[in-house]
Design goal:
With 356 residues, this protein is of the alpha+beta class. The chain folds into 2 domains: 58 residues, Multidrug-efflux Transporter Regulator, Chain: A, Domain 2; 230 residues, Phosphatase 2c, domain 1 (4-Layer Sandwich). The protein contains 13 helices and 14 strands. The strands form 3 sheets. Strands 5, 6, 7, 8, 9 and 12 form a 6-stranded antiparallel β-sheet that branches. A 5-stranded antiparallel β-sheet has the order 4-14-13-10-11. Strand 8 and strand 9 form a beta hairpin. Helix 6 packs antiparallel against helix 8. The longest helix has 33 residues. Bound molecules: magnesium ion.
Length: 356
Amino acid sequence: MELLTIGAFSRASRLSPKALRLYDSLGLLTPAHVDQVSGYRFYRPDQLERARLVAWLRRLGMPLARIGAVCDLALEAPDRAAKQVAAYWAEAEAELVARRALAADLISYLNGEENNVPAPQPALAIRYAARSDIGRHRDRNQDTAYAGQRLLAVADGMGAAGEAASAAVIEALKPLEGALPAGSLLNAMQDAVRQADSGLRDLGVPGTGSTLTAMLWSGSQLALVHVGDTRAYLLRAGELFQITHDHSVVQALLDQGKITPEEAESHPQRSLLLQAIDGNGPPQPDVSLHDAQAGDRYLLCSDGLTTVVSVTVIRDSLTAPGDPEQAVGHLIDLANEAGGPDNIACVVADVVESRS
Ligand code: MG
């Protein structure tokens, strides 16, 4: 095979000889041959593809160490390489959002709209875990739990195709993982719920539906969308707040003062929902936006947890030391130890300060 000189390779790959020497020293792109005497580098024509990939990723601003990992994956598992690029880009966008907020604060200070130089907010990130468990009495698991770079979600399916329904509503939200929507987070999530609803209509199994409680991370805020009796809680400074309101008959009776909280616990219509995503026309999800603080811990869960484990015990469990993975495992154990009458889905996400 004819080898290309570094000059010819540089022109073909649009990488400068200086860059090529740097990539060689970093092990990103090793020349096929280095002349012992002159030290000249030579490249095979089939190395052009890797060189172009390196150039492309440099242009995206990806750090060199990560470029190496993506290039190695690109050969054997292009789909995983694609995921790495998507994950990098999600981080880059989150960082940009945080910098945009910093710039806005500083501009308003310099324009005399603020009296004090604002203390820069630390950059935030989320650490998360998700799991769903069949419990001890059901023969199918119709709950779905999901946590990714940006999306956190639990869904409790019901009816003949409940598993498919809960999986489908979360699937409808997953495109939001890829790139932050250009417009409002809340509108994007409402659109995704509408998509999920028409998806279930296409599924065409009457009586099948799902709840949905999902949050989308923007880098500084979490957008919440909620339908049904799955729930979201926020643990902040040791206190646990329920930040969703059940769309259930029992909750409505409670709100109207027609039953007491004690009666609600054993009410025969406890599982009857006022709203679900079931393909019968777009539901009216509750939506809200939450400012994130370092140290916040979010829990999304299905009624398989909340009907058998008290809020106090949930709070104690979430306050105990441990990462999100351990917290999820512990909550599922608690529900099973309490009899595990239903499927259990849990997502735990911690807001942490990231490198800045
Ligand atoms: Mg359930």
